[in-house]
Specification:
alpha/beta, Rossmann fold, 2 domains, 7-stranded parallel beta sheet, 6-stranded parallel beta sheet, 15 helices
């Protein structure tokens, strides 16, 4: 780890590359903040994909970002796919120039479109690289980058199936500390959502954009849950908000419906049970807050990694899985069955204790700084 104070001419320089979704962007920002805590005058440059979430969230966090004109292949046949090779070539050239000009001491790849060209460019110029793999099943980009990366930080056991064991470090996923700090917030959460403390509370979320299957399934089962006295905090995303309000108009006292929940810490603090997709960061947050969850993996992600993320918990009896195709039929019954089974809820919490990896951002930052040549 770098401990000595660096002079301006010897200033630590770090590139963090990647993004595309909150699952990549928020961990990247957490790592950057952890580096700044360790080396206060470090210069950190982000490289992301134009038009993606990172181009807004990174500047909001106080860091500079450069956008590459890069995109991945669409699953369906589209003219946009014809442009992908040209965008990739352009991004490779730009990445080489960015690395050459910025002269980083270390480059960190967090996944997403921009991660590949930048980490590859750094490796070709002899600059130490670290990649962070959030999922239990790595994407093709990280599998390729992992062949030359100096260190590979992972969130799950068993990743030696995909990477060289000698360069693997089990660190967990960086989570937003303000979101998982729940101590003493239960009463504030009940007041915030307008709920009673003597009834069970279910949190339903499909992520910041919502999840259509989860939303439709909850709408179909809203009456069943209300009749059982279950209170529901429901994050719908923009597209389903009006439909959700219509679905619960007869049971308003049992539902708190939101397009987006700014105070996710209060949603977690209120919840007895969570229904969620199984993106890497959602799963990591569930492990840290140790709340029982029903996971409904999205079928629309590359290499079905959400199912693999969910199974990493399910195989440890630390979560319940419902297939996306079955959610409409079984979600309500499964929620009621689990929330009434205090022994099973307790056993799940016990299993989650052993799966939580804390201070991941600090650990990853330390591993990255240990690669810096002093």
């Amino acid at each position: 780890m770098v401990k000595r104070s660096r002079q301006p001419h010897d200033q630590l320089r770090v590139i963090i590359a990647g993004g595309g979704t909150g699952g990549h962007v928020f961990p990247a920002i957490a790592i950057a903040k952890a580096i700044k805590k360790k080396v206060y005058n470090a210069r950190i440059l982000f490289v992301g994909a134009k038009g993606k979430l990172e181009m807004r969230k990174v500047p909001e966090a106080g860091f500079h970002i450069i956008g590459l004109n890069i995109a991945g292949l669409q699953r369906r046949l589209t003219l946009k796919n014809l442009l992908v090779p040209f965008k990739l070539c352009d991004s490779m050239i730009r990445s080489k120039n960015i690395v050459k000009r910025f002269k980083p001491n270390v480059v960190i790849g967090v996944g997403g479109y921009a991660s590949g060209p930048v980490v590859k460019a750094a490796s070709s110029q002899g600059i130490p690289t670290l990649i962070q793999e959030q999922n239990s099943y790595p994407g093709i980009t990280n599998r390729i980058l992992g062949r030359k990366a100096n260190k590979i930080c992972v969130a799950y056991e068993g990743m030696e199936r995909y990477f060289d064991k000698s360069r693997l470090f089990l660190t967990g996923n960086p989570v937003r500390q303000d979101v998982v700090s729940l101590e003493g917030k239960k009463q504030e959460a009940l007041k915030f959502f307008g709920f009673s403390e003597n009834k069970s509370i279910l949190l339903v979320t499909g992520g910041s954009l919502g999840a259509l299957t989860i939303n439709r399934s909850l709408a179909l089962n809203a009456g069943m849950l209300a009749r059982e006295g279950i209170q529901v905090v429901w994050q719908t995303g923009n597209g389903f908000y009006d439909q959700a309000l219509d679905a619960v108009k007869e049971y308003k006292e049992f539902f708190s419906v939101h397009r987006f929940i700014d105070r996710m810490d209060l949603a977690y603090a209120a919840a007895d049970l969570i229904v969620s997709r199984s993106g890497a960061i959602a799963v990591s947050e569930i492990c840290v807050i140790q709340k029982p969850a029903i996971l409904i993996p999205s079928p629309n992600v590359a290499e079905d990694h959400q199912t693999k993320n969910a199974m990493a918990l399910v195989n440890q009896q630390a979560a319940v899985l419902i297939k996306d195709s079955e959610a409409a039929d079984v979600l309500g019954k499964e929620v009621i069955s689990l929330i009434k089974d205090e022994n099973k809820m307790f056993r799940i919490k016990e299993k989650l204790v052993g799966l939580a990896l804390r201070d991941s951002a600090d650990v990853i930052a330390a591993e990255a700084l240990s690669l810096v040549k002093t």
